Amino acid sequence: MVLIACLLLPWFEWKWQNKIRRWCAALLSQVQHVLWGNARPAETLAAEYCRSVQYRARRCAGTRYGGCAHRLEWRQLWCVFNWLVLLVAMYTPDDLVAVRGEVAHYGTIFGSMTDIALGSGTIGPMHLLTQRIDLDAIAANTALVKKLIGDRKLMAVVKADGYNHGAVVCAHVMAAHGADQFGVATLKEAVTLRESGITKPILAWMWRPEQDIAAALQAGIDLAIISAAHAHAVVRAAKETEITAQVTVKVETGMGRSGVCEADWPSVFRTLAEASRYVQFTGIMSHLALGDEEQNPYNNAQAATFRRAVAAARAAGLTPQMNHLANSPTTLARHDLGFDMVRPGIALYGVEPVAGEDHGLQPAMTLLAKVVVVKPIAQGQPVSYGGTWRAPSDGFIATIPFGYADGCPRSWQNHLWVTIDGERYPQVGRVCMDQIIIFLGDNQHGVRGGDDALIFGPGTHQEMTAEELALATDTIAYEIVCAPHGRIHREYVSPSGKNLPAVLTRTAGALTGTFPD
C-alpha cells in the first residue's frame, strides 16, 4: 500500500498539495512507528519533512534492523517528486543503508543522500571505487599539531571539502581534538559548516563584494578583507543587517595573490576603524609563498612585511589580536612565525607538506577499487587507446574502475602502481575515462575479479602513498588527495571507535545527527 501511495501522490500533489502534505505526514508518522518504534505527531513530521523545496529540509532517522545501525538522510529534490523520493528511500533495498559488521554504507537516491559510512570493513557490493577516510588519523594529526603549537590558537583549514576528505565530518573531529577555529575559501563552504553544527569561528577568504554578505553575517561567518571594495561591502552589509561583522584583513606580503597591497593599508584600516560600531576587527593574515622551503630567506622577508601590516593596523587605531601567517610546513618547522594562531591544512589530513620529511603525521585517505575482470593477454598484444603499451610476455591483465572521469589524470599513466594483497602491479597503457589496466605478469598470486585494489593510501599495505605518487608524477601530494571525485563512494572509518564526531554518534544502537551536502 505504501508503494502504491508513493506512486500516486506525485500525480495528485499539483492539485491538492496541502492535503497531500497532511496525508503524507500522517503516513510517514505511521511508517516511522513501524520502522523505528518512535512515532512523532504528524504536525512535527510536517514541519520536518514537508517544507518547501527552497528550504530543502534535511532530516535523518535511525533504526535497528538485525542488530545493525541504520541511518537515512532525506532531502527534497523538486516538488513533484517530494513524497516519491521519501518513500522510495524507505523501501528500495538498493538505496537503503546496507550494514555489514560495523560499517554502514549510505546509498544514493537520485543524488539525494550523502554517502557516509562508519566503522571498518570492505567495499559495499554497489560500489566499485571507494575513498576511505580514517577519522582516527584526523584526530591524531589535529592533536599532534595542537600539542606542537603550545598556547597558540589552531585554525584548521577545511576548504575544498576538507582537501577532499569531507569538510563537515572532519571539522567535527578536529573540533573535538583541539581546533579553535576553521578556515575555508568560499562563503558556501563556511555556511555549510555552520549548518552542520560547527559553533566555533569560521573564516572565509574567497568571496566577491557583490555576493550575499548579509546571509554570511546572519550565519555568523567571519570575513577576510582582501581589497578596499571588500572592506566597504562588509561595512555596508553590517549596517544594513545591524549585525556586527567579524573581519580579518588579508595583506599582500609577497605571495602575489589575493590580499590588500601595502599602498592600500592606510585606507582599508581607516575604513574599518571608522566603522568600529559595525565591524569587529580581529587581526591580520597573509600567506607564505615558499613555506615549504623552511629556511628560504623570502619567508623572513614576508614575515617582516607582515609585522609592518600589524603595526600599521595599530597605528590606525585597530587592535589586531589574532594574527596568522603559518601554513602547514611553517606550523611544523618555523615556530618563530607562528604569531597568535597557525593555519595548517594538508598536515591535518596526514600528508607531509614537505616531501621527504617525517613529522609523525598519519595519512587519512585511502583510495581503493574492486578489480572488475582479469583476463589473459598474449605477448605483443596492445593495451588501451593508441596501443602505446604491449605485453612483454604472455600473462594477465586486470581492469580497475578508475579513470580520468574519477580523478585519475592521464599524467599518472605508466607511473601508477596498484597494490593487491600486498603486491604491486604496474598500470599500463593510456588512462581511459572509466578505467585503467594493470599488468599481472603470470598472475602467480591469483588476482581475480572482486579483489580490493589499493590505488594509494598510508602505505601500510605496500600501496603507493600520496607523496610517492606525487613524486612519480611531478606534482604535489595536495593535488593527489584532491583528485578523486565523481563516481566515488566515501566511507568514514574509526578503527578505535573513539573518534566519531557528534553527528555520527551511536545512540542505543542507532546513528543520530544531521549531514548537509
TrEMBL record:
One of its GO terms (molecular function) is alanine racemase activity. Its EC number is 5.1.1.1. Residues 364-493 form the Alanine racemase C-terminal domain. Keywords: Isomerase, Pyridoxal phosphate. It holds the Pfam family Ala_racemase_N. It catalyses: L-alanine = D-alanine. It is an enzyme of class 5 (isomerase). This is Alanine racemase. It comes from Corynebacterium choanae.
